Known about the structure:
By secondary structure, this protein is α/β, with parallel strands linked by helices. It is 36% helix and 14% strand.
Amino acid sequence: MSAPVEKLTKKQLKADHPTWCPGCGDFAVLASFFNVVQKLGIPHEKVVCVAGIGCSSRFPYFVNAHGIHFIHGRALPLATGISLSRPDLHVFVFGGDGDGFSIGGNHLNHAARKNVNLSYVVMDNQVYGLTKNQTSPTTPIGRRSKTDPRGAIDRPINPMAQLVASGATFIARTHAAQVKHMNEMFERAILHPGFAVVETLSECTMFFPGAFDSGNPRKGGAFDLVDETSRNMECTAEAMQLAEETEIAPPGKFGVYLEAHRPTKNDLENEWLKDAQAKTADLAPKDLLRKRFAAMR
Ligand SMILES: Cc1ncc(C[n+]2csc(CCOP(=O)(O)OP(=O)(O)O)c2C)c(N)n1
Ligand code: SF4
Ligand SMILES: [Mg+2]
């Protein structure tokens, strides 16, 4: 009889002590990630964390699992390769608003439309934290920073609208100060087959304190939830309407904006692979590739 598999504990998942500033919202995101991975009983050796560059992108250092701290904005293409080549792994991507919506914006569009099977948490603090206070793609108009000393003049992107348009199949929005809600969003994202993104408002206490007070009832704000009972969760038009509310009536709604079902790139590639293998006398993927390259010479 094989030995029973030990349940993963938070202690086993913890690595270095996080180097974030006191009060940084990213601490709560990390704690939530530990909670959910432990709750879902994901095998320790199957956890992979990929990140770009930024304060939030330091995430993999603090998780005792497979992890890569990669290039600014390029976490998604790397994570895509891992997900496609090792479908048995749980691939998590972490990063900031700059990393994901600015330099990495093109990759976000393509990974989303391809419905690559992975979970992506954007820790949005509406500022470049690591490089000490520059305007980011989500910085509100009028906010002063090192790059906009007279206040930001460019219209910020609407992350929810952008994600809906890109073709992501699971899109949610939460707040790092609402731990229960954040846990629930992460859990649903992980269980979703396909490209799942959770925009998590995570305060940069050093450079943009109070940025998300309007979404925090303990700071006088309102944490209004998406009403899932009265809507079609697969409808992009309804999701887009919700996304518009984040601009018309900030801070907008929190919860799942879209939960659609479409074949993943992983499944589609696997079908193609199986077909090709059947036609080529069960060649292993690497031999199939060799044969293909030989034919291209
Ligand atoms: C190719 C490249 N361009 C620019 C930088 C400088 N840089 C590092 S992190 C960063 C932005 C960080 O902001 P964000 O992604 O929002 O993460 P945060 O620190 O706010 O969590 C920039 C511009 C870099 N490291 N590499
Ligand atoms: S600079 Fe901001 S985002 Fe970076 S660790 Fe400090 S509080 Fe967090
Ligand atoms: Mg940021």
